[in-house]
Amino acid sequence: MSDKKNHTPSTSPSYVLVCERVWLYHTLTFVAGFWGAFTYLLRGSVFCNAQTGNVVLMGMALGAGQWRHALYYLIPISAYIAGAFFSELLPNPVKHHLPIRWETLLVGIEIAVVVFLGFLPESAPVQVSQVAINFIASMQYNTFRQSDGVAYATTFATNYIRQIGVGLANEVRHRHRADKGHRKKLAAYSQMLLCFFGGTVAGSVASLALAGAAILLTAVPLSVILIALLRADLTTERDLLERKPAGH
């Protein structure tokens, strides 16, 4: 996104809300990659950012006749459903009763959860961390949907990989055409994949070095986002709280 677009006066129809800025999506995706590595290495060898794996494991357990084990997967799946449920219902009440957006409150909630998990004893059941991250990851996925005209899923990488394949196919298909508009999305999804990958690398190194306290490191980039969102809500975008972010 160009600096010109970022600094357009907030009264302009072309103004991009802070909660839709590309840098913010890059940061959220990096954090999600970190969470993925953290939960896999330290909290039960599961990926809590998405639920495809849990659905597969639940089906496998049912197929093997392991009924109790299968029912266990209803816990993270239910937490993910709850996250989507609340993130659909809360945005309007929040902006009507608080001087901030739902997106801002959500990042604050994420920081609170991260701090709670960071100080959780290593002896605590891994399910506590799994359910908490399932819940906030679902809310984040359902809240931050689009930036600069490109749809994103900030908590997992499958769509980015697919979209890179689509973009490369368009590169071949349009190689003799002057229109190269597809390159914007190809570059955007490639950047997001790199951010997610970078987060997993950082999460792996930190988890192996710091154990459960490693997740506290993600409070730093989340705090940067929170400060930017609060500043926008309370000053530059105070008159735009009723405006829905793109993708909603």
Description of the structure:
The chain has 248 residues and is mainly alpha-helical. Helix content is 66%, strand content 2%. The chain has eleven helices and two strands. A two-stranded antiparallel ribbon has the order 1-2. A hairpin with a 2-residue loop joins strand 1 and strand 2. Helix 2 packs antiparallel against helix 8 and helix 5 packs parallel to helix 8. The chain is globular, with a radius of gyration of 19 Å. 35% of the residues are buried.
Approximate shape: globular
Terminal-residue CA separation: 20 Å
Please, how many helices?
A: 11
The largest sheet, given as strand count, sense and whether it forms a barrel, is: 2 strands, antiparallel
**Helix percentage:** 55-70%
Mean pLDDT, nearest integer? 91
Given as residue ranges, the uncertain stretches (5+ residues, pLDDT < 50) are 1-8
Structural class: mainly alpha
Note the beta-strand portion.
under 5%
Written as H for each helix and E for each strand, in order along the chain, the element string is HHHHHHHHEEHHH
Q: Give the radius of gyration.
A: 19 Å
Strand arrangement, largest sheet? 1-2
Number of strands: 2
